Each structure stands twice: as structure tokens, then as C-alpha cells.
Amino acid sequence: MTSSQEAKKQELPPTAWAVLGLLSFPGERTGYELKKWADSSLRFFYWSPAISQIYAELRRLEELGYAASARSGPEEARAKRRYAITDAGRAALSGWAADTAEAGPPVLKHGLLLRIWLGHLAEPERLRAMVDEHMERTRGELAAVREAMEQADGVPEWAFPALALRWSERQHLAELELAEALLADLAALPEAGAAGSARTGSETGSEAGPEAGDEGRQADGDAPTPG
Question: What is the pTM of this model?
Fold first, then answer.
């Protein structure tokens, strides 16, 4: 491996390792097939890269000698390029998977909770509807996870992906429990609710300053939590 290839290896992003990981299972696959597999496995516990990202990483992996591709023969009506992992790619992937360096904390970007955080600008009924919609989507995702688990069941090569899917099943079940608890928390809020606290003095026709208790609370800063 040349020095430039070695430098590129050190800079590989997690998406590149994920694509190489998809290639580490038996068989050769097209970019489209890799995308379908990512949608039915990776997205449940990590994320599914766009098809353009997959092809970009495949080109990078080929440059490094970690993957190889070949066009299909005349027996197929449409020529397809299929990719496979190389011995060098498998060795590199094994080293990365066994690396004892900290993998980093999970990154949570919860769109629903961002809206709940801004609940003082919304009507309580709409917030509850958002939670209900979120639960419906989560049930759909849970069904998809369980379908993927059925496909992996009994396949020796998919024993470890099956463990990741089982974790994802538990995570979706926990998400449903959290949503139920969030609905209970919303129901326990005062009747004035979220939208009521968003009114300003001009909206209510009052120009009075803050009451003594409010002034004392604001003196320590505007943030609702320490920091």
C-alpha cells in the first residue's frame, strides 16, 4: 500500500467501514443491493447511507484495494457492476472492528422531542397528536425490524446482525414506553398548557413588569437548567 493509500485508510469515515461491512458477508452485490440491505438492517441501529454515498464509498474502497468489482456477463439483460470485498479489505475491516478505541457516544436527534421542547409555542392537542403519530411510525418500524429478524433467523452468517436487530427491537419497544410516559406528562400539565405560556404582554394587553417572584427567578439566568 502506497503512502497516499495509507493516509486515505486513516481517514476512512464510519460510512466507508459500514459499506465494507456489508460486503464482508458471503456473495457479491450491486450498489443497489447494498442500499436495500442497509435499509433493512443498518438503519435500525445506525443509519442507511444514500445510494450516492454508497457508490462514493465503493469507489474509495476500490482505490484502496479493499473492494473489487466486475461487470456482469451477457447472460443478464442489463449489465450490472457487482462488488466484493478483497483479502486486504477483510483484514482492514477485521482490524477496525476489533479496535479497542472508544466508539463514541450514541448520537440522538429526536425530532419529536425538539418540538416538545418548544411546546410553549404549540397547542396541547397538537403536541399530543404529534406523540400519537410518532408512536404509529414507531410501531411500523418495529414491524420492519421483526420482519428483518425473521429473515436472519437460522442463518449462521447473520448471527451477529441478528443480535443487532434484537437490540433494535428492544429499543423500539422502549421508545413506545417513553412515548406513553410522555403522553402522561403532557396530560399532567396545567390546563393553561403549552400555548398559553407563549403569550407576551402585548398579546394579552398587559404591559406590567415581572412580578417579584419572577424577577427573582430570572436573576439567576434564563436557562431552565444549570449551565
Answer: 0.76
